[in-house]
Amino acid sequence: MAQQSAHGGDDGLVKVASPTDRVDNGWDDAARAVYSVRKIDAPMGIILQPDARAPYLLDLQGKKFYSTDDLSDFPTHPVHVGVQTYVVSADDVLPPGPGRNLELLLWNVGRSSFHGGLAPWLSPTAPYRLTAWPDFTGVFHTTFHLRLTAHLANHVSTVNDLIELFPTDADSVPGAMNAFSLLGILESMPAQPAPAPAGEQSEPSEPVKATGGLWSRLRDRWGF
Questions:
Q1: Which residues of 118-153 are buried (b: 16+ CB within 10 A; e: fewer)?
Q2: Which of 92, 96, 104, 131 has its CA 20 to 30 A from that of 154?
Q3: SS3 category, 86
Q4: What is the mean pLDDT of the chain?
Q5: What is the pLDDT of residue 182?
Q6: Between the CA atoms of 131, 158, 148 and 45, what dihedral angle is there, to the nearest 10 degrees?
Q7: Is the pLDDT of residue 72 over 90?
Q8: DSSP state, 67?
């Protein structure tokens, strides 16, 4: 598995899965499918079939999933997960009964994928923030997950930053970030320039004429 250097974990590295890796964890393909399908500008559905268990039918547009399976017994390490994607049409008939909150399933899939490493589309050095608070009702979560969510809802941080900020829970950071990404609430922000070394003077430059007000300058600098 490809690796990128970061602080955290027993070996001091945050493991990042390569897009070409084929590891023996069925949820990896499922996570890749969810991430890819979210980018398609059309109503899409996904069917996930872990081993011999009941399938999960995902309605991404409706933010619901349908299954007879009990998530309290969620299979965290299936050998194989069949993945089928399709375009939702008006003629499709959904399974009987009310659908369940899709976040419940995607939280489990994200945390169970890539063997605790970071998903291949995420970077340890890219700045991220949360655009919404996930629904933790009915899913396994810890105090750390709540603290991490609160931090990312109010601050822009890299995975490296989070590893240093939460050292005792460093091994749980990548899985949580994978889950936030699958939920569609993790936003990548523009990289910020590194601060100049203390005492180092920059070359004088031509004065820049201000254009627009404070909001315009904040938008240009921080991407608001």
A1: bbbebbbeebbbbeeebeeeebebeeebeebbebbe
A2: 104
A3: strand
A4: 78
A5: 95
A6: 50
A7: no
A8: -
